[in-house]
Amino acid sequence: MRLLHIIATPRTGHSNTLRVSEAFIDNLRAVRDDVTVDVVDLYHHGLPDIVGDNIDAKYELMFAQPIDKSHGESWRQIETLIADFLAVDAYLISAPMWNFSIPYALKYYIDCIVQPGYLFRYNEMGQVVPMVNGKKMVCATSYGGDYSPGSPMHAYNFHEPYLRSIFGFVGVIDVEFISAQPMDITPDLREAATTAAIARAAALARSPGWAVPSARPDASASAV
Length: 224
Ligand SMILES: Cc1cc2nc3c(=O)[nH]c(=O)nc-3n(C[C@H](O)[C@H](O)[C@H](O)COP(=O)(O)O)c2cc1C
Description:
Strand content: 15-25%
Shape: globular
Number of helices: 7
Order of helices and strands: EHEHHEHEEEHEHH
Largest sheet: 5 strands, parallel
Helix content: 25-40%
Strand order of the largest sheet: 2-1-3-6-7
Number of strands: 7
CATH superfamily: Flavodoxin domain
CATH architecture: 3-Layer(aba) Sandwich
Distance between the termini: 31 Å
Radius of gyration: 19 Å
Structural class: alpha/beta
Bound molecules: flavin mononucleotide
């Protein structure tokens, strides 16, 4: 299994979120020996600005026009990011909540890769057709407060709904969230929430959906 770990926290060794995602990776590696992990560390990745030539190229694609030659070089940076995104079987996103939503670096990455003709397209009826099929995703998250269902802050959580919406839009619908919360109220609450999230990460990595390689079509089977 080839996993893309998309890191959207700049806190490296101090990160609450990465403690959870590391537990997921460690447990996945413990139960299967075919795991490779590619990393996109968004605070050290040098994403291209979404301006000028690549904006023009995006609009050319949206209106089903060929990309103008003068926009090609800028567009190739976008294509490289998309190729790396599409090359894997599964995704692990490590993203804390920032101001009720996702950190800007993750939004920036999404703005780069979610492109017409690559991750989605419109059919002749003008309906959206997702183009990313059969991939799984885990979102490891941590929140300073408590946004669990039924809590007073639940309605302020735009983080999980946004990620489910945008990745669902392109076809990633097998998405699990592991949310460590609350992180920033007391140290005891942080430790308890982290321990619970790590246990959930371990259980998910060892569950059949992740631990068991998906069945491949049997090439020797004859069509009847
Ligand atoms: C810029 C910024 C904005 C934040 N906004 C929120 C927020 O809106 N709600 C919340 O509960 N916590 C917020 N936090 C706290 C983080 O979500 C929390 O500390 C999280 O565990 C940090 O994860 P990390 O250590 O992996 O970076 C914010 C933190 C930062 C740095």
